[in-house]
# Entry
Amino acid sequence: MTGFVLCIGVELCFATPLGFASERPIRVPMLGSAPRIDGYLEDWKDQSFSDGVWDIQRLRHAPWYDARRNRLTDHGNEPRPEDDLRARYYIAWDSKFFYFGAEVTDNVNDVNDPNHADKRWYFKDCICWFMEGPRDRRNEQFGQGDNAFCFVIDRRRPKYAAWWRHGAPGRQYIEEPLPATSVDYQIRFNPWGRGRDDYVLEARVEMASTFGRSDPDWGPPRRGHEYGLEIVHTDPDGGDYGGHFIIYGTGDDDSSWARMILSEPQSPIQRLTK
Ligand SMILES: [Ca+2]
Ligand SMILES: [Ca+2]
Ligand SMILES: [Ca+2]
Ligand SMILES: [Ca+2]
# Structure
């Protein structure tokens, strides 16, 4: 007997086609005090959710890995794959905002897109948090409740560098800059003094003016609320479409995104004396 025969009702069949979306959920801690958005994560990263360093070798063993979509490109004279792109990602929440952080090793900063359009963040160095809130069991592609908060790693901070792809009731793929009043972010380059194109990204996005617009069912955040989460990190490094990490999901289908639960505050890891 196969697993498909055991599907009871439409919702279960939708919820489990990819296997990993129903794995142990990501529990994202609430912050007790609001961070300063200054490009330094030390004021909150130990209280946030992070599951360590991601590089292409680790991705290769993740359940959602697909070599066509999780990829790096070779332009000649490349460093080791892990020095082409690797990162730690951080996420937390409070009563008004989601907080996003990343510490990134990248060999080349590339934000020049030969066919630039404001919405083409995925042809530039960019980190994008895909989130559905509230999470439901419908397969949607940037429909109601789906939001992508994208940060192009551009020293010039153009208006399109903080981008919002989202849905709304009856609408998909609305593309616009994040409203200036909804977002705050900082990028700090060469944070460790070993590579001029390494960077730290620190950002916050207001929930009510984003999730509240994409889904009338959204309500102010409470512990236990369930969201969907995927991270897309792009790294063209010259040329057109280039390197991609896709973490916790397989792309735009929100039913593939990980379950994420708003959770209680978390104390930093304590090290023992022996
Ligand atoms: Ca900070
Ligand atoms: Ca790179
Ligand atoms: Ca890059
Ligand atoms: Ca959905």
